[in-house]
Every structure is written in structure tokens, then in C-alpha cells.
Amino acid sequence: MKKYTILHTIETAGPGGAETVLLNFVANLDPDRYRSLVLLPEGSWLPRKLRELNVPTVIAESKAWYDPSLLRTMGRLVRQEGVDLIHSHLPDQNFYSCVVGRLTGCKTIVTYHGAPPLSHARTLRQSLKLWWVRRTAAVVVVVSEYLGQLFHELGFPREKIVRIYNGVDLGKFAGARSGGLRAELGCPEGTRLVGMVANLRGPKGYEYFVQAARRVADSMPQTRFVAVGDIDRQISRRLSDLVDQLNLRDRFVFVGFREDVPAILGELDVFVLSSVSEGFSLATIEAMAAGRPVVATRSGGPEEIIEDGRTGFLVPPADPESLAQRICEILANPAEAEAMGRRAQGKVESTFSLTKMISEYERLYKWCLGAT
């Protein structure tokens, strides 16, 4: 049986959802059938994680929107390593990979994890990139039906678009408990903990979570709030000012990026996603895998993850009042919250498992490679 070489490539080094998906992917591909190489920029997280797995890794930075040095590095890697298929992630790297794929004759699969802002997509530069990917990619993978529709509206033919949901390892999250976060935060006995796991970026809508926190705290004073994720300094300053304005300094904490997310999720009474735009949300299915009741916004991908009122609650984006109401409803009904968490775990097991994601990508690989 032929063993195929796959070049995985991404434009960022994380931490983040797309980088986590790539890491899980190369760690779980059938090693008897596929050999993985990874090309990515320098960074402190994903390159280290890949090296811990002994995955061959090449660092190459992109200095401009059209960088010949990156194209040369990728093209040389394809030829020297006998790459059979390129699999790229995120918009810029999808473009570069399709250019190299055309120059080397190597088929390219691209994966989009989020929606390009329409104003961004309509600039000449971005329109050119999307046109080239649309014309040359063998397959365009999207992580939700919502994204599939958006890319179809941008001119991508439906027959080229394949939806594959991101997946998580249920065993990594189910039953993970430590109590370490509550001790670290100095939470008194009986404290209810509400949290969000997402990098501090504009589309995550953190300001609405902070505003909702004020409303929840007014109704349930024993509640504390935690934000977990890589911090953007400009956004964090604005959010810190908002926390001060709302007199939440003693109960809303930004802890930054953490490696112990499964244990943190296990300590939450409610998981929140306050995004205004979301392609899918890996953190939401991680929280569901941990058996946590979830309140998320109708921001794109979450509508395909959560069955409203059964495996979680969906609320309008940019609506802190609705967000707060659902958080309070969960906190006031612990038995139903526990039942909701169990149903959420079942949904992850049936629809959003890592095994299912890997199986669907391997089936796609076989089709592209003409393998049997």
C-alpha cells in the first residue's frame, strides 16, 4: 500500500482554533497511510507542539501579500519531499498553496475556518486571492454550512465546496476536573463560575460578555467570570476599562492563554460564547464535550452546533441582556443544567468527534489522490 506525503500549511502559529485543528489532525492521521510535513511561520506555540510530536516542521515567514521567498520555499519542499497533496488552512496560506500547487502540479485542498469580512473580500487584492483559490483548488473545505453558503455567494461552485465539521477528542474533556482555577482565583465556597475560552479579538464580542456579567452579578452576587485566551493588548485595554466602568474588577478576570483548557472547562458552571461572527467555534464543542451548559450567540456556526433549549441556548449577537438572562436561567436550575450538559456531550460524540473529522478528511484525501 502506497504511503502518501501530505504537506500541511497554515499562516499563523497560534494558539487558536485553526492551529489546534491542524495539530489534532497531524497527530491522528493514519501513520501507515500518510506522512505529514508542516510549513508554518515562527511562533511559540504550534511549532513547539509539532516538534513534541516529532512532526517534520519547516518555518517560513510571509513578508508581503505576494512573497516570492515563501513560494520558493514551499515549492522546493514539495519537490524535495515528494509531496503528493497540499492541505492548507486560512485565507492567505490557501492562496499561496494554490499558487505552488499550480506551479508544481500538486493538488491542493484548502480549509476555511471563518468568514472573510465582505468589505475585505471585495478589495482588489483579496478578490484576486479568492479568484485564484476558486479557480485552482481541488477542494474547498468549510467547517460549517454557514461558511459554505458564504463562499458560494462569493462565487465558489457548490460542487467544489465540502463541509467537514471540526472535531474534538471527547475523552480529553469528559470528566476533567481539578479545582485549580477556583483556588487560583480565590473563589469563596459556593461561587458560581461563568467563563469564555476565546482569544481576545474583535469578532469574539467580549464587550457583550462583560456587559452581561454586570447584569448576572446584580441578580446572583456569588457569580464570578473568567476569560481564557491569547490577549490583544489594544482590545484588552478597552475591555479592562469597561470592567472598571461596570465595577467588576473583583469578579471578572482575564487569565490569558492557558494549556489546561480541559480542566478549566470542567470547573465552569456555564460556558459563554459572545461572538458577533463565528465560522464554527471549536471552544464551544470542547465545552460541550466537558458536559458544560452553553450560552452562545447566533453568529454563524453556533446555530449548527447547538440545539436551542436542548444542548445549550442560542441568543442574538450583541445582546448582553439576552445573554445574561440565559446565564441566570442555567445558574438557577442546576438539575436542568446538568441534563443539558449530558445531552451536549452526546451531540459531540455523534457529530463533532475527532474520529469523525479525521475519517472524513482521510476519505477526501483518498478521493483527491485516486487512492483505493
Report on this structure:
β2, α2 (46-52) and β3 form a beta-alpha-beta unit. The protein is built from 17 helices and 13 strands. It folds into two domains: 4-167 and 353-369, Rossmann fold (3-Layer(aba) Sandwich), CATH 3.40.50; 170-351, 3-Layer(aba) Sandwich (Rossmann fold). The radius of gyration is 21 Å and the shape is elongated. It is of the alpha/beta class and 372 residues long. The strands form two sheets. It has a seven-stranded parallel β-sheet, with helices on both faces. A six-stranded parallel β-sheet has the order 10-9-8-11-12-13, sandwiched between helices.
Question: SSE layout and pairings?
Answer:
Elements: E1 4-10, H1 17-28, E2 34-40, H2 46-52, E3 57-59, H3 68-80, E4 85-89, H4 91-104, E5 107-112, H5 118-121, H6 124-136, E6 139-142, H7 145-153, E7 161-163, H8 170-173, H9 180-185, E8 192-197, H10 206-219, E9 223-228, H11 233-245, E10 252-256, H12 261-267, E11 270-273, H13 282-289, E12 294-297, H14 302-305, E13 313-315, H15 320-332, H16 334-351, H17 354-369
Parallel strand pairs: 1-2, 1-4, 2-3, 4-5, 5-6, 6-7, 8-9, 8-11, 9-10, 11-12, 12-13
